[in-house]
Amino acid sequence: xxxxxxxxxxxxxxxxxxxxxxxxxxxxxxxxxxxxxxxxxxxxxxxxxxxxxxxxxxxxxxxxxxxxxxxxxxxxxxxxxxxxxxxxxxxxxxxxxxxxxxxxxxxxxxxxxxxxxxxxxxxxxxxxxxxxxxxxxxxxxxxxxxxxxxxxxxxxxxxxxxxxxxxxxxxxxxxxxxxxxxxxxxxxxxxxxxxxxxxxxxxxxxxxxxxxxxxxxxxxxxxxxxxxxxxxxxxxxxxxx
Length: 241
Ligand SMILES: NC(=O)c1ccc[n+]([C@@H]2O[C@H](COP(=O)([O-])OP(=O)(O)OC[C@H]3O[C@@H](n4cnc5c(N)ncnc54)[C@H](OP(=O)(O)O)[C@@H]3O)[C@@H](O)[C@H]2O)c1
Known about the structure:
The chain has two domains: 3-101 and 211-237, NAD(P)-binding Rossmann-like Domain (Rossmann fold), CATH 3.40.50; 107-207, Dihydrodipicolinate Reductase, domain 2, CATH 3.30.360. It has seven helices and eleven strands. It has helices at residues 13-24, 55-67, 81-92, 107-119, 142-154, 214-222, 234-237, and strands at 3-8, 28-34, 48-51, 71-74, 98-101, 125-132, 171-173, 176-182, 188-195, 200-207, 229-232. NADP nicotinamide-adenine-dinucleotide phosphate binds at residues 8-15, 34-38, 52-55, 57, 75-77, 102-105, 213.
């Protein structure tokens, strides 16, 4: 049996990838492609909805889907914990519906953040170096911020961050120095460096292309049919935490 899917933001860079993956799968069928000129009601022909549109309209898409009993997987950026809290009452009011928020579809990124939380309990000296292309305007990256927050959460004591008042020592995120490179030729890379007694450990994740999203997109879509309530993060979808 196939599950039918509506994609909001289907013509976008990420949306085109999502549509291709659904079309290539045997268990899902793409039945609606929505864009800026569409009526949101067009999604109602589908069993489930994927939102990969824009942060400014994503909340409206979520609300429309949930109010109409459609489970939805959201890959659009901007869903901070605070923003998710705002829609939690609506999600709770529709227990028959599932909602999945994925801020980063990369399987390797989810795995390396998880591995960093394992190493974080064993080393007191921890720093993050992230690199992206020159067009990324924000820094540090959302992934670096979330990695630092997760590391700090699993530790009982502060990370060693000497001389952190000096600019070249990076920006402290949850007490962890984060260094951002914005360089030509780079897609995305993150090193989490752990310093110990006479040794260091580095956990590196390198993004080479958008193909890194493919496994995570399909894992998240496959988790949606039959889901009740919300899941936040690819690590939860693939049961890393
Ligand atoms: N989770 C992840 O791993 C991940 C990875 C990459 C990107 N993202 C995020 O995914 C989102 C999309 O990125 P992108 O690069 O694909 O953007 P994009 O190429 O600019 O595509 C945006 C899409 O949104 C549609 N759209 C705009 N206004 C709309 C409206 N009012 N109603 C319905 N659809 C509307 C556009 O349709 P029209 O063509 O009709 O304007 C287009 O299809 C962004 O938030 C981005 O940060 C997430």
